[in-house]
Amino acid sequence: MRRTYDDLVHEAATVSVDGWDFSWLNGRATEERPSWGYSRLLAGRMAAARAALDLQTGGGEILAGVPVLPPVTVATESWPPNLELAASRLRPRGARVVADDGSERLPFAGGVFDLVTARHPVRTHWPEIARVLAPGGSYLSQQVGPRTVFELAEWFLGPLDGSARDVGAARAAAEAAGLRVVDLRFERLRMEFGDIGAVVYFLRKVIWIVPGFSVERYAGRLRALHERIEAEGPFVAHSSRFLIEARRPGGPAA
After folding, report:
1. Where in the numbering of this chain does the Methyltransferase type domain appear (predicted)?
2. What whole-number distance in Å separates Cα of residue 110 and Cα of residue 125?
3. Please, are residues 39 and 62 in contact by the beta-carbon 8 Å criterion?
4. Angle at alpha carbon of residue 116, lines to 112 and 117, rounded to 5°
5. Of 39, 71, 98, 137, which is the most exposed, with the fewest CB atoms less than 10 Å away?
């Protein structure tokens, strides 16, 4: 029996969106993954590191999946529900979880980490990353690229400026902070939303796609999108991702 619009929306509007686990969308939405395999790269870098810092760790899901963590592993997170999740996952692994107050300056001494990582950071403070890296240390990050999920965002918001999160700008900022970019890759990836519940859940969880999103505020556009999906099949959008690895000059790893 086909579920109604009200049933789908109510379910998606009331389920928890804490953490950074998207398994609720299994069978309801799909997204292609970048070919470079960030989790695999992360595991390799972590296994070789002595002291590592994972920035904006979310609920700690990605870091907790790393088989071997360095002797010193620290993660930061700013959103209180995610902070609690991250602590529950990472403290049993010997990792310390530190609250990020949102300021640009990281609460660590300079030159103490030989590896800094971040998966989908909201912001990248390149001078601070360069400051806390030890000579020869590396920053490895998979980031959200330009015009990510714009098809969905523009359904609700109208035409948008897609110039943010430029890959070239990331390279320039890293180099301006004194780092040397040793790897930079970009891919555009297909996404499909199979029902309106998947859309509601996604927009509740990834809050920057449609800022201020709520079911009540966008009821008309949600119902129109539901009718389109029912008539034409999954709503197709595209994400973009880039991988950047930058190294601080000096030291044995340079």
Report:
1. 53-139
2. 14
3. yes
4. 160
5. 71
The CATH number covering residue 28 comes to 3.40.50.150
Query: CB–CB of 78/100 below 8 Å?
Result: yes
Residue 123 in any domain: the answer is yes
The C-alpha atoms of residue 249 and residue 254 are separated, in whole angstroms, by 5
Instruction: Tokens 């001078």: give the residue.
Output: 127
The boundaries of the domain holding residue 101 are: 5-247
Q: Residue 69 and residue 60: Cα distance in Å, rounded?
A: 13
- Tell me the per-residue pLDDT of 29-58, one tens digit each, with 9 for 90 and over: 999 999 999 999 999 999 999 999 999 999
Overall residue count recorded for the chain in this entry: 254
CA 188 – CA 184 distance, rounded (Å): 14
Q: Give the tens place of pLDDT for each residue, 6-32.
A: 999 999 999 999 877 899 999 999 999
Asked if 34 and 120 touch (Cβ cutoff 8 Å), the reply is: no
In the three-class reduction of DSSP (H, G, I as helix; E, B as strand; rest coil), residue 177 is classed as coil
21 in a structural domain: yes
Q: Which residues contact 2 (CB under 8 A, 6 or more apart)?
A: none
Residue 206 is classified by DSSP as S
Of the candidates 101, 30, 44, 91, the one whose C-alpha atom is nearest the C-alpha of residue 64 is 91
Closest by Cα among 78, 82, 239, 214 to 151: 239
